[in-house]
Amino acid sequence: MRIGIDLGGTKIEGIALANDGAITTRVRVATPRSYDASVAAIADVVGQIERTVGGRCSVGIGIPGAITPAGVVKNANSTWLNGRPLGGDLEARLGRPVRLMNDANCFAISEAADGAGVGADVVFGVILGTGVGGGIVVSGKCLEGPNRIAGEWGHNPLPWMTADEFPGPECYCGKQGCIETFVSGPAFERDFAARVGRTESSAAIVEAAARGDRLANDVLALYVDRLARALASLVNVLDPDVVVLGGGMSNVSGLAESVASLLGRYVFSDRVVTRVVKNRHGDSSGVRGAAWLWPPTAA
Fold first, then answer.
1. pLDDT per position as a tens digit, 117-126
2. Which of 51, 91, 197, 230 has its CA 20 to 30 A from that of 256?
């Protein structure tokens, strides 16, 4: 049995994953806003799960950041984690090896292992949520890179900007025009508010578009085109077999199909065979991927 932990900004979710991919136990607690309390909360979730399953398990954790070669966290929007040796502290607390990886990588691992990307050689997993991230899995192995930033496509500039898009909104990373500032959920809502003059949730905008609201449809069409441009630049570099969409915006009905239909405008090929699909495991994909950091035979 393997334990997967998803360390989110608002909640910590833990599961026990059986060798056949079935989730046998699930625990959720609120994420504390301090480092020491977060370590304690993760250890407590592991303890709860192990008491339920009646045995000691391997532990994999998806985090909102990356682990540097020196073993400390960087680039986490849960800023109290940055610069701290989370893996080492958890190993000391739990008395066993612990594997940590970026949460978008965990999403990609999950969808490649037994999700929408199963059977594909090269899988690019995309997170379209509050932020925009990604993970790359090749032949079943997640690519991290020497800088531990492989798949961070959200912090490249939006390709083929129009005159009214350039130079793009400011990003928290300090640059302007990042893909994240155009195709995240908050970016979608910002574009609608700028055009219509009122604030609505992403879900409400999509519902309005489905009802035939012209302005909502225009904003959604622009979002789809921007996402197609952003993914086309990724396809030109990586040429994946499949792109799996995750995060809140992936729930937009028909998004994957609409983006796929536009890739041919931008990809440097006379024919685009890369599939664009919605994820299979939904909100559970990240925590499942964390469990998949250990092989099924791990104890």
1. 999 999 999 9
2. 197
